[in-house]
Write a structure and sequence with these properties.
Number of strands: 21
Largest sheet: 11 strands, mixed
Strand content: 15-25%
Helix content: 40-55%
CATH topology of the largest domain: FAD/NAD(P)-binding domain
Shape: globular
Length: 726
């Protein structure tokens, strides 16, 4: 009975929306065309002072010190950068400061989706919630805009919703069709139903048992950190004084001539790199600091109540073979009622997210319980033939979602589903909450409120259809020109084109000659990823100040494979050190800081923890005998441990040559007490962890197994670095 009522309700709402949508179809097309024409005219009026070259960070800091601005935006995430771009394109004199790097917080730690929110639409229908429905509609409009203004950084992605009960098929189909209808003319592609056989053909890793079919719908996917950076760089090109690593120490205030509370008139800022402090004066200050919203609000009024209720979302990255190249998966009802996405991203597979209350911190750490929860849910949907191992987790991170309560609401305990724009008695404008996808409309609403509250003389919003950094002139075949003109590898050229857009040519021009027949230029930072050394030099032009900026946000290596990131780190520091004139002390500090970041925030610590937790060796007697025998082939003197010398000696006897530094790294992965040697107990712990799936693709384990098998034959053995799960 309950199901029939729900289905009837869905049918009624679908019918109403369908009629309304199609009756307005031509009108929507007309309005869309008119909006584009209006944008073309508006864009033609805009000047781009720094179209050819971005000003240096030093020049940006000098502009902050020496000018008075209409708008000062605090916070360099997606929303803050969006506010700065909106303001500067309204011909407002604009400044943007960020105490860390652009996109260093929540905006780089998302699920990488540009979406309206299928689950929000479900709630809107079931609860007849108009506000939630309008939030989805707005997000779907913004999804279309974002795909249009940054085509190199975003693309439509088909997502499969597997169905394991017959009655769910019409129920889910009606909901997904409703999603298409709400999008209207901005629907990316129409959703469709798949038979069991077709679903398994497209997603062969899927669990077959009791599968009755699947529904595929479309949403957008993007490179979130690069998208955030593109917004900030676009604002800088249009003339916004934009500086990362610039922290607000306190707000500046001046007396109100009408006898009211003192008015916010700027901020005292500190250059985090040099420690120098200076004032930035502005008629209006916008607080767009995400999870740190309340910190800035308390600078304005120490008695103000918190409105941010932070929630942590953990994601993991596992090898790309766990999912098809161009098909995601949605688990609509996990064991605890949450939603899990399982998506291809940057040739890897991303899975998440969780949703648990947390404390606000600049350095969130992924928890082991959350990682295992995601792995368990993934196992529930994949075939038993696919062994999902803890050791296959290549990276893991936690992002803090800034859920908010509305300070103007009588019920201040209720969480606001959407965003909140508020203006304090002193004139501080705060934008909080919301979604990545709706950053632009949030910025527009924020600037509209700021213009009204402060009497600013501004043009109308011009950001709908405003193409972001690298997007103008981009085409899907642009990478071919990079291959032909510069002699780059195809994979590298595709990566540069999809990361920098038309600016990829600037990166290619900086690429060093390899000295090989092919590729002609483009030395990779690490062999299995398409990131090249010239990207580090170009990253400095994009305001990268630390090695972490390059590892995590200019490239995405730290988010994709922390072990590979650790290997690339010394070369990144060397290049940046040479370009920026770093002392040896600074280079050492950068190495330590970046490794700490990888260890704690990107999940690298999990590898050693998986081994130390396995103090109880879970091997049977035959396995212990077999592994001890293997160990003693390297430990000829029966010392009870092996060193790089022992391993090198055995490898040379079978004509295998490995660089000494690489060999040190291989042993260091297993050397738990860091004494420069691997004891027999550490080796048995490793093999036990491999058996249980806690560690996978261990280089030492594979190397010793292969060497043992080839010792008698004396055949050549090649040992390449494998995936290196954490």
């Amino acid at each position: 009975m309950a199901f029939r009522k729900a289905l009837k309700r869905v049918a009624v709402v679908c019918s109403g929306v369908a009629g309304a949508t199609f009756s307005l179809w031509q009108l929507l097309e007309y309005k869309k065309t008119q909006a584009r024409l209006a944008h073309v005219a508006a864009e033609a009026e805009l000047s781009v002072p720094f179209a050819d070259e971005l000003p240096s960070r030093r020049a940006q800091l000098e502009a902050l010190r020496s000018s008075e601005f209409d708008v000062l935006v605090v916070g360099g995430g997606a929303t803050g950068a969006g506010c700065a771009l909106d303001a500067v394109t309204r011909n407002l004199k604009t400044a943007l400061v960020e105490r860390n790097d652009f996109s260093s917080g929540t905006s780089s730690r998302s699920t990488k989706l540009i979406h309206g929110g299928v689950r929000y639409l479900q709630k809107a229908i079931m609860q007849l919630d108009y506000e939630q429905y309008m939030m989805v509609k707005e997000a779907l409009h913004e999804r279309a805009n974002l795909l249009e203004i940054a085509p190199h950084l975003s693309a439509p992605l088909p997502i499969m919703l597997p169905v394991y009960k017959w009655w769910q098929l019409p129920y889910f189909w009606a909901g997904i069709k409703m999603y298409d209808l709400v999008a209207g003319v901005q629907c990316l592609k129409s959703s469709y139903v798949l038979s069991k056989s077709k679903a398994l053909e497209l997603f062969p890793m899927l669990k077959k048992d009791k599968l009755v079919g699947a529904i595929v719908y479309y949403d957008g996917q993007h490179n979130d950190a690069r998208m955030n950076l593109a917004i900030a760089l676009t604002a800088a090109r249009y003339g916004a004084a934009t500086a990362n690593y610039t922290e607000v120490v306190h707000l500046l205030k001046t007396g109100d001539p009408n006898g009211g509370p003192d008015r916010v008139c700027g901020a005292r800022c500190r250059d985090v790199i040099t420690g120098e402090e200076f004032d930035v004066k502005a008629k209006c200050v916008i607080n767009a600091t995400g999870p740190f919203t309340d910190s800035l609000r308390r600078m304005d009024d120490q008695q103000t109540e918190n409105i941010c209720q932070p929630s942590a979302g953990v994601h993991i990255v596992i090898p790309g073979y766990y999912s098809p190249d161009n098909m995601g998966l949605l688990d609509p009802a996990t064991s605890d009622g949450r939603v899990i996405f399982f998506l291809p991203w940057e040739n890897m597979t991303i899975a998440g997210t969780t949703d648990t209350p947390t404390q606000v911190t600049a350095h969130p750490i992924p928890g082991e319980d959350d990682i295992n929860f995601i792995l368990t849910e993934v196992r529930n949907y994949l075939s038993p033939d696919v062994e999902v191992r803890r050791g296959d987790v290549l990276a893991a991170w936690s992002g803090i979602r800034p859920l908010v309560t509305d300070p103007s609401s009588k019920d201040t305990q209720s969480i606001c589903r959407n965003h909140v724009v508020s203006i304090s008695g002193s004139g501080l404008v705060t934008i909080a909450g919301g979604k990545w996808t709706t950053y632009r409309s949030m910025a527009e609403e924020t600037l509209d409120a700021a213009v009204r509250a402060h009497g600013l003389r501004a043009e109308p919003c011009r950001t709908v259809g405003l193409v972001l950094e690298g997007g103008k002139g981009w085409s899907p075949t642009l990478y071919i020109r990079l291959v032909q003109d510069y002699g780059l590898e195809k994979e590298v050229a595709q990566h540069l084109a999809s990361t920098y857009g038309v600016r990829a040519f600037d990166v290619a021009k900086m690429a060093q000659v390899t000295g090989q027949r092919w590729p002609i230029v483009g030395k990779r930072l690490v062999s299995e990823f398409p990131y090249i050394e010239s990207e580090v030099i170009y990253a400095i032009k994009e305001y990268a100040c630390t090695a972490i900026d390059v590892l995590a946000r200019r490239t995405r290596l730290g988010f994709l494979n922390v072990q590979a990131a650790d290997e690339a780190l010394p070369r990144i520091v060397a290049i940046m050190g040479q370009e920026l004139g770093w002392s040896q002390e600074r280079r050492t500090a950068e190495l330590e800081s970046a490794r700490k970041f990888l260890y704690h925030e990107m999940g690298y610590r999990s590898r050693s923890e998986q081994l130390t937790r396995t103090s109880e060796i879970n091997l049977d007697n035959q396995e212990v005998v077999r592994y001890k025998k293997r160990f003693h082939k390297f430990d000829k003197e029966s010392k009870g441990f092996i060193t790089t010398v022992d391993v090198q000696r055995v490898l040379e006897s079978i004509n295998v040559h490995i660089d000494e530094n690489a060999l040190h790294e291989i042993l260091n992965e297993v050397d738990l007490n860091k004494n420069g040697q691997v004891e027999i107990d550490e080796f048995l712990q490793l093999m036990s962890a491999v058996k249980k799936g806690q560690v996978s693709d261990s280089r030492l384990a594979i190397l010793m197994k292969t060497a043992e098998e080839t010792l008698d034959e004396r055949g050549p053995v090649t040992v390449d670095r494998s995936g290196g799960g954490v």
